[in-house]
Amino acid sequence: MTAPARDRAHPGGRRTGEQRAPWILLAPFLLIFLFTFILPILAAVGASFMQVTRSGLFGEAGVTQQFAWFHNYALALGDGSFIASIGRMFLFGIVQVPIMIVAATILAFLLESASARWPSLFRAAYFMPYGVPGVIATILWTFLYVPGLSPIIDVAAWMGIDIDFLGPGTVLWSIANIVTWSYTGYNMLIIVAQLKSIPGELYEAARVDGASPFRIARSIQVPLIAPALMLTTVFSIIGTLQLFAEPQVLQTVSPAIDSQYTPNLSAYTTAFAYNDYNVAAAQAVLIALVAFILSFAFLRLTNRKGQ
Question: Which of 3, 45, 72, 128 has the fewest CB atoms found within 10 Å of its own CB?
Fold first, then answer.
């Protein structure tokens, strides 16, 4: 029997095979996603509701786990340093995120303008800092922040200006500078991709009507790249609460950075310095909830303004 004859004889079997094919192709990804994303989240949430009790002076009499309800969350919310770290990152995000998004948008407009030369070269140059790991980027900038190593501080001292990049009032903005340097190019590429999707006919019609480049950017480009701006802003809000590598590296040269300077650093310290994994899990869940609430509030606010 030929293949078409078999297909006509068993139409239901062919449809079943076609329905299974996508799931078979997706199975490797779904398994990896399940074991590396979903299960760790569920494990963290479960651990945040558990409490470990050790019997004996050093726990030699046994370790037991019991359901603790919201006890770990109460401990996390009662930690003034953890709450202060969230407030510190809130201030960080209010200042740093808009500056970075505006800088990325301006760079995208300049590179996509008709008069731009070698746009591919400059796109690669602006994106290059994103390819530098956060630890390496912080080490590189440390040489510009530490007195005795920084040529900026030396030149400022020669001019009679006292600069302390690592002081209590300035180290947060020194970290913001590193983050802006690292991620502006990444956000710029997302905005550039959205700009490239704008039909050329809109630009031609605007030029025929005598619109200036500034008017084209304000009336055509900015409204049409709003989805990209919203996406980059949400990513930046989430990334702000996940800040970890930069303060941890700068902690070795700046006394103003303690072990709970950022929420992620606080959870890390609670888990691996104090060995309290359950409270650290509660802190991690709270960080995720704060990121979700801020992102959701931003999306609702922007959608309301767009209506």
Answer: 3
Residues 86, 264: contact at Cβ < 8 Å? no
3-state secondary structure of 54: strand
| Residue range 199-217, pLDDT digits in tens | 888 888 888 888 787 888 8
CA dist., res. 307 & res. 302, Å (int)? 9
Beta strands in 153-242 (DSSP E): none
Which of these, 276, 267, 273, 246, lies nearest to 86 by C-alpha position? 267
What are the residues facing 51 on neighbouring strands?
A: 66
Side-chain half-sphere exposure of 40, counting CA atoms within 13 A: 6
Contact 243, 175 (CB under 8 A): yes
Q: How confident is the model over 121-171, as pLDDT tens digits?
A: 888 888 899 988 889 999 999 999 998 888 898 898 888 888 889 988 899
- CA pair distance 134, 248, nearest whole angstrom: 11
